[in-house]
Amino acid sequence: MVLSMKVRCVASRREENQMNIRHILRLIITLVSALGTAGLVAWASPSPPARPRALSAALCPPLDPPGGATVTVSTEAELRNQAQNAVPGTTILVAAGTYNLQDAVWVQHDNVIIRGATGNRDDVILDGGGMLTWSHTHVIAINADDVAIADLTIRNGDEHGVSVQGSDRPTLYNLHILDSGYQLVKVNPVGDGSEGGLLACSRLEYTTTSPEDYTNGISAHDAHDWIVRDNEWYRIRTPGNEPVPTILFWSGSSGTVVERNLLVDCYQGISFGNASHGPGDHSGGIVRNNFIYASQPHDVVIEMVHAAGWLVANNTALLLDPVSGVGHGMEARYSDSSGTFAYNLTNMDIALDRDGANGAGTGNVTDAHSNWFVDPSSADLHLVGAATAAIDRAATLAQVSDDYDGDGRPIGSAPDVGADEYDFPPPARANGFRVSRAITDSTTLTATLTWLSPAEAVTVTLRFSNTLIGVDNWAGATLLTDTLPGSASIFTATLPYAGGTVYFGHRSQDGLGQWSAPANAFWPASHVYLPLVSRN
């Protein structure tokens, strides 16, 4: 299975046609345009707001084609029978449809994969029958090692959507898990605990809230070296606003990695350890590069409780409705808790020493404003240029080499505070690029080009061709110069000319090596003469 890394999807600038109009006795219309710009990548935004960036194939690729024995099921009874009895190495492909389960799907043998046959998690729905109906506890229960569950929707679990019975190396991938009576995912403390689990590229949510004042998105007991990455979590909360963490690892868990998740309107966020337990509830682990947005009432959103040796780094949290008595958004709590909060970006204080905790802090920014982000109301907490207090203000951490989008740090002179590494936009296209003077003879054209470069331009490159010059054919156009400084605004060139139209292209580069879109001018220009209209 290929389950790593990602590449930011990039949206290109919108093309703008520019037209200079001069009206004395005639109107001269000069066409300036550009071709070959990369296509826009759409960011889907179903309601409620979804992840504010597309998940790239490098980040969340489809699973590899099945290897070994494969069986396809199309009924509820077949699914439960195959899950119970499949020999190790079997892949169970579940045909598209809705499966109203009469009992839990128990996986009892190692190295079994259950996945939707189409690869689209919306096509295959396992319905547990309803929350807290006391019919069957789980939708899927894993009682074996090296089991993978993928490409499914799991809904209406009696108590749990997926339950892991202390099994090692479970993979939960590209799932949509919603509306379970208690936890959406439960890892139970069976045997020596669960090691090496992965929950990735999934969406977990309640339509409104849990049915009772007890839930979590994932509650993991005695879990070790689990990775929870690139998931979306919505409305993990109770009807009575009880403090229930969305992502909770406790009961002796260790080495948890929680990264690149989006949490929207969850009452609490990410917790290592539980206040109801004692020392040793969690050890080690890292929480990095997560977006947390809360517009509904909320408690603290990252807490380290009875936990030691952790790092909470480069997370972004915009917290808009703290409940009464909550004056900070992140905290370490109790004297047995020790670790570091580093380079987090939020609008609330970080409590390093609540109830005697031994938390350390470095480089955190706690006075963020909504206008520092692209679209906070849609939970898009990518930085904009106004976030100068966060951009290039962090130091490099060995444990944080990329950001929420998988972009390497740093992009500028230093890493940014928070989960997003601000990606400086490329220079704008030159304004007013035109042929201001031209002289021809039988074999040459001498043309003077003028323009106004963008302020961020460091160098200017000019080319010419017999066709309009865009990104795709830029390298194939003939070079005029690539040594002009960004402040240049005029250049005269003599080139071979045997008639026809000559197109000139202009592009600038900034200090990061980013190119502007091409601007075009051409010669000869066409003049359009219009009658002069006077008003009496």
Question: What does this protein look like?
Answer:
The protein is mostly beta strands and 536 residues long. It has two domains: 18-42 and 426-523, Immunoglobulin-like; 70-383, 3 Solenoid (Pectate Lyase C-like). 2% of the residues lie in helices and 38% in strands. The protein has one helix and 45 strands. The protein has a 22-stranded parallel β-sheet that branches. It has a ten-stranded parallel β-sheet with strand order 6-9-11-13-17-21-25-29-32-35. Strands 42-41-44-45 form a four-stranded antiparallel β-sheet, with no helix packed on it. Strand 39 and strand 40 (444-452) form a beta hairpin. The longest helix has 10 residues, at 76-85. The chain is elongated, with a radius of gyration of 29 Å. The model is unreliable at 1-52 (pLDDT under 50).
Write the layout of secondary structure elements.
Blueprint: E1 18-20, E2 30-32, E3 70-73, H1 76-85, E4 91-94, E5 97-100, E6 105-107, E7 113-116, E8 124-127, E9 138-142, E10 148-157, E11 160-164, E12 171-180, E13 185-187, E14 194-195, E15 198-200, E16 203-205, E17 218-221, E18 223-224, E19 227-229, E20 232-234, E21 247-250, E22 253-254, E23 257-259, E24 262-264, E25 270-272, E26 282-283, E27 286-288, E28 291-294, E29 302-305, E30 307-313, E31 316-319, E32 328-333, E33 338-342, E34 345-346, E35 349-354, E36 358-362, E37 373-375, E38 380-383, E39 431-440, E40 444-452, E41 459-465, E42 478-485, E43 490-496, E44 502-509, E45 519-523
Parallel strand pairs: 3-4, 4-7, 5-8, 6-9, 7-10, 8-10, 9-11, 10-12, 11-13, 12-15, 12-16, 13-17, 14-18, 15-19, 16-20, 17-21, 19-23, 20-24, 21-25, 22-26, 23-27, 24-28, 25-29, 26-30, 27-30, 28-31, 29-32, 30-33, 31-34, 32-35, 33-36
Antiparallel strand pairs: 1-2, 37-38, 39-40, 40-43, 41-42, 41-44, 44-45
